[in-house]
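User: For a benchmark we're assembling, each entry needs the component sequences followed by a predicted structure for the full assembly. Here are entry 17's components. Please fill in the structure.
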Amino acid sequence: MSGGHSSYQPTSGIGKWMDARLPLPRLLYDSFVSYPVPRNLNTWYTFGGILALMLVSQIVTGIVLAMHYIPQVDQAFESVHLIRRDVNGGNILQIWHAVGASMFFVAVYVHIFRGLYYGSYKAPREVLWILGVIIYLLMMATAFMGYVLPWGQMSLWGATVITGFFSAIPLVGEGLQEFLLGGYAVGQPTLNRFFSLHYLLPFMIAGVVILHVWALHVTGQTNPTGIDVKSGQDTVAFTPYATIKDAFALVVFFILFAYFIFYLPDYLGHADNYIQADSLKTPAHIVPEWYFLPFYAILRAVTFNIGIPFTDIVLIDSKLGGVLAMFGSIAILAFLPWLDTSRVRSANYRPLYKQFFWLFVIVCIILGYLGSRPAEGWYVIFSQIFTFWYFAHFLIILPVLGLIEKPLPMPASITEAVLAKKGGAASTPDGAAAAPETKS
Amino acid sequence: MKEMNMKSFVAKLAGLVVVCAAVGLGSAQAANYPKNKPREQSWSFAGPFGKWDIGQLQRGFKIYREVCASCHSLDLVAFRDLEKIGYSPAQVKAIAAEYEVPSEPNADGEVEDVPAKPADRFPSPYANVEEAASANNGAAPPDMSLLAKARAPERGFPTFVFDVFTMYAENGPDYIYSLMTGYKDAPEGTKIEEGTHYNPYFIAGEALAMANPLSDDQVDYDDGTPQTVDQYAKDISAFLMWTAEPGLVDRKRTGFMVMIFLIVFAGMLYMTKKKVWAGLKN
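Assistant: Structure for entry 17:
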């Protein structure tokens, strides 16, 4: 898959027979055994593998849960709690799936921020990055619909709020919302279609993941230096080097996962979802799951209409404005490869970007906190300030930084960087023929 | 030079952001309930090695039967579940027989009330939600099965961060205990609605529809445990934690084994990784 020659040598008779007909073993061997990866990948690069396993974990637990779950408004809530009480291993299975959704997002956020830090989205990896954004969007849709299925108070009211976004769209909005819900409000048809889609989307994610991995294997991985691989010495074989590293990181991640499953199963959820959905009782605060909170803060930050100054003409009312800002905050990620004007990939060699990166991380965390607060008083004002910063990071800071920043000197090759780090003599086996990518 | 200025600008900006956020978030206070945070108690089922106190669960069940059950249902709990808190199958059968449930229709299509069997779940004290509401001043008493998980007053920053490390997951029983022992006269100047009862621990207002249900010596204990409101409140809270998650202790026990396995496995993988990478030539 890496575009190079295959080193697969079938030895057994059946191996040769198969290779001449459907070279699937060859594909897997070239992709996950002999595939060369940069030798300097650090722990942050193990999260791709962790995410693949989280997807498998969610699909396996989900399929078993679906065998016991009843998508019917009068029985859904009870069926979930009877799974926890009466199904063998059901208590842990249900918690595993629910906590698993949160841990999936923990892993994906680490993965995304790693990409931001090391400039993984830059040429020639734009398509790889955009496929990642698509996976993220599918994950959000899947998680949202999955949260509706237990039919608790937050399920129903969360679904009411989120599908309400669509009614903000001019002309077609109301019709679109009714189409999504299968009625005027969240009810039986909504639960049925969300169950169906919640079962479908993970397999679509799996499909896009295959494209994501394919694109990755065409361009090869980035690495903490951001320098391209220049010789065989810069790489190691995926197996055993990357496999064993990924396996270790995966098990450490599963320790964290297990800690929440077994000791804090309700920590990441919301107590109101232990109350059966009631369309006549609105909860005091409707709050989405933690992984949506920054976007929820952005949604509610737009409290003003946008119109033509000095007239009463409103072009975008505050509701539509909030929805546009929220979707825009995700969509903007897809344009990142062209918004970042710096030719240096890794933040390790970009002293200014490095600081703005961490500032951006802080801004996202604060937006998350603001999303969990009621939309009133100072919370709204801070949401507006940090929403502005969120967009400014992509639209102003990144384009400008690339033009004014002076990158640090970079090592001639990955091997040189590794040896320098080890404190050994920085020999340059390649004769350092290629100059590092610096800005002129 | 230009870069240095830029650097210090970024540093200042970062500082400003954090200070503003801290000041702003600290001062922005919504009128939130409960007025008083729940008082934290020590529970036998807390922590990584938590165990049920079977005597306490049985006392709590007695309180449920003699006090709570007149208004609150326990929809998700079956009589057979009581075997998990130390009752023998014969005792469970006897307890179930004290309740009546509608039978299956007979050959003539008649349904009559018959004594419950262990497989039946606790019948609700009311025929439906409307009846429950109408008998209780318009507010139907909530089902108690999941109550200890459905009530979790916000912990607030930074407590919720520490909770990850202390494994604090007892907000529900702490809340119920505090509510049960928190009834008092409304402070002067506080007006509460007719037919409600002041309690600063109530999660959704200053006063709730339910009157103080517990008083000293109300329920007889035969194991010498003090018959005080404080003790009753602890026992019913523990019982409700059990009804909310009967598998809680099993979960923690499984968790310990899983953690040991994962930690040992991680250690072995780490050593393997070191060995594999050590063989790499520079």
